[in-house]
């Protein structure tokens, strides 16, 4: 995992798609990994009372997957400076979560490249969230 | 499972009227302290969930070479101030405006989260935060139910007040359609 050369990143570039199979194990790991015990993520009866199909991933898990989508491409030296996530639908056990996105803007910011991305996370049926991410990468010496 | 009163109380938002909520706009919450430092074990649990193989989170030496110290995934920010569901000798409370702004509607769902990171989160530090509700919508109807959109801004820092991130969150507080 070495990552991109930030000077070569241009607007319009489509990032490689990343997929994650969501199982009950994954949703159960959500409270384990995030300590978020809101019952929508661990109690299917509560979730259904909320109008949801079953227990669902929390925002923190989706944020992490959106960041992983970015750093799988950009590499470990990328600093996530900002991430805005707008939720549209929930992700349930049995769903296939897929990240896709493109470079919107890439500008030099001193010794760093500022790369702005527009990302969508989807399942097989729904748009889950729109994400805007800004990352900073040190430019390599010429 | 739905009959567990302890769980229901602890994670339920404060009930009240729209006017009571409106009156608390701009009021700063107490600081909510993480009970445990950021550790590599929690990072591994989280990365296993999202299947993130980023060496920053699995190889302390590689992480330190890039960032000066080993780091945690930025998306874990809010996890490091989540209280465990039980702690010895104290009531566990979610004492911040996102949960404590009094409003009608006993159900919540997150609408948007905008996080600006000022620096990486480091292994070994303990985070805390406070928040303030900055905006409250009139009553709105969505496919989930009738309620209000609440905007809060939270400031996260470490134990010596070094600012880590600013979180602007919009939450829908509602009465479910099926209720």
Can you tell me about this structure?
The complex is a heterodimer of chains A (142) and B (179). Chain A is α+β, with helices and mostly antiparallel strands and 142 residues long. Chain A has a domain at 9-22 and 59-138: Hotdog Thioesterase (Thiol Ester Dehydrase, Chain A), CATH 3.10.129. In chain A, 23% of the residues lie in helices and 35% in strands. Chain A contains three helices and five strands. Chain A has helices at 24-34, 44-49, 59-74; strands at 18-21, 79-87, 96-109, 112-122, 127-138. Chain A has a five-stranded antiparallel β-sheet, covered by helices on one side. In chain A, strand 3 (96-109) and strand 4 (112-122) form a beta hairpin. Chain A is elongated, with a radius of gyration of 17 Å. Chain B is α+β, with helices and mostly antiparallel strands and 179 residues long. Chain B has one domain: Hotdog Thioesterase (Thiol Ester Dehydrase, Chain A, Roll). Helix content of chain B is 20%, strand content 32%. Chain B has five helices and eight strands, in the order H-H-E-H-H-E-H-E-E-E-E-E-E. In chain B, strands 1, 3, 5, 6, 7 and 8 form a six-stranded antiparallel β-sheet that branches. In chain B, strands 2-4 form a two-stranded antiparallel sheet. The longest helix of chain B has 11 residues, at 40-50. Chain B starts with a helix and ends with a strand. The model of chain B is unreliable at 1-8 (pLDDT under 50). The chains are: A alpha+beta (142), B alpha+beta (179). At the A-B interface, helix 1, helix 2, helix 3 and strand 2 of A face helix 1, helix 3, helix 4 and strand 3 of B. Strand 2 of chain A pairs antiparallel with strand 3 (107-117) of chain B.
């Amino acid at each position: 995992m070495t990552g991109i050369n930030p000077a070569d990143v241009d607007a319009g570039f489509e990032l490689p798609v990343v997929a994650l199979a969501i199982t009950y194990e994954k949703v159960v790991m959500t409270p384990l990994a995030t300590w978020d015990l809101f019952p929508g993520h661990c109690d299917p009866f509560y979730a259904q009372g909320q109008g949801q199909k079953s227990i669902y991933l929390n925002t923190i898990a989706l944020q992490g997957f959106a960041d992983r989508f970015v750093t799988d491409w950009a590499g470990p030296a990328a600093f996530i400076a900002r991430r805005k996530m707008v939720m549209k639908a929930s992700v349930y056990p049995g769903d296939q979560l897929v990240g896709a996105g493109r470079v919107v803007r890439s500008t030099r910011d001193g010794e760093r490249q500022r790369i702005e991305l527009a990302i969508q996370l989807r399942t097989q049926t729904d748009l889950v969230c729109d994400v805007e991410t800004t990352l900073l990468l040190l430019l390599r010496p010429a | 499972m739905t009959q567990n009163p302890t769980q229901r109380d602890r994670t339920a938002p404060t009930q009240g009227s729209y006017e009571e909520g409106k009156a608390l706009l701009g009021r700063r919450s107490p600081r909510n302290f993480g009970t445990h430092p950021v550790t590599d074990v929690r990072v591994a649990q989280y990365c296993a969930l999202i299947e993130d193989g980023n060496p920053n989170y699995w190889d302390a030496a590689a992480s330190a070479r890039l960032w000066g110290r080993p780091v945690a995934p930025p998306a874990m920010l809010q996890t490091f101030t989540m209280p465990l569901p039980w702690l010895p000798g104290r009531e566990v409370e979610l004492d911040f405006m996102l949960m404590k702004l009094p409003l009608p509607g006993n159900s919540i769902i997150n609408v948007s989260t905008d996080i600006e990171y000022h620096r990486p989160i480091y292994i070994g530090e303990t985070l805390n935060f406070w928040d303030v509700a900055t905006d409250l919508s009139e009553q709105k109807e969505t496919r989930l139910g009738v309620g209000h959109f609440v905007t809060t801004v939270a400031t996260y820092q470490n134990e010596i007040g070094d600012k880590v991130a600013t979180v602007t969150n919009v939450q829908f507080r509602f009465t479910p359609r099926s209720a």
